[in-house]
Design goal:
The protein is mainly α and 76 residues long. It has a domain at 9-39. It has 2 helices and no strands. The protein has helices spanning 17-20, 68-75. The radius of gyration is 27 Å and the shape is elongated. The N and C termini lie far apart (75 Å).
Length: 76
């Protein structure tokens, strides 16, 4: 039964950013866990999801702290 995934591309040390820029300290010729593809724009972090804020609620909640003026009135 097909799982719907495309087959993973074969990676090699020759295509690794660290090997191409002489930053790899390993002598093995097998890809390691720190493999990053060598791209023209250099080493870049993986893309992340965008964070969107929810609409702020306009009601006062029961656990809200008193305002500074209310705190002064409580301790006066």
């Amino acid at each position: 039964m097909a799982n719907g995934r495309a087959p993973a591309a074969k990676v090699s040390c020759d295509a690794c950013y660290f090997r191409q820029n002489m930053l790899c300290a390993l002598t093995d010729e097998v890809p390691c866990a720190s493999f990053r593809p060598n791209r023209p724009e250099g080493l870049r972090p993986p893309s992340q999801l965008r964070f969107t804020f929810r609409q702020e609620r306009r009601m006062q909640v029961a656990w809200a702290f008193p305002s500074p003026s209310e705190q002064v009135a409580l301790h006066a």
